[in-house]
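User: Could you check the structure of this?
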Amino acid sequence: AFGVGLLGGLALWRVAGIDTVGVFTTGLAEHSSITGPASGRTYGVWVWLNLIEFSVFLGLPLTAVVVASLPGIMRDLRRKAGQMLPAYLGASALVTLLALDVSGVVRGETGRLWLLFAPYLAAGAAPRLLSENGSRRGVLIATCALTGAQLLIMALTMQPIVRPY
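Assistant: Sure, the predicted structure tokens are below.
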């Protein structure tokens, strides 16, 4: 299920004009060896910093929902019940991200490199945000509003060094 979802997602990114293979190869080539002040960081520091950076770029509200959804995702996978495809996509994306992190291949810029996994993590958490009777509508609205506020704050405070426009 993850393979089909990944290929579908990569096709959609390609249609949008994003060369995902190029992003990954260039990013891995640039960030697999770090020079400068960050080169003195140990492997353990990179493992935690990668996860923190990715959670910031994923959006702290969505990260909280994904983490809170993990028990439900694991329960769905064990019981083979509930929303199986979102559970498979979310769990597979999380396992892939953790494998990339623990391998130590990537040291920095995980927000940019791993952000392509965000839709799969969101899909895994979606059944916990959506309910048939609408009882979780407030959580969904709060997550979207807080994520939008975080994006606005980041856009205003984290100006790029070179503006693309």
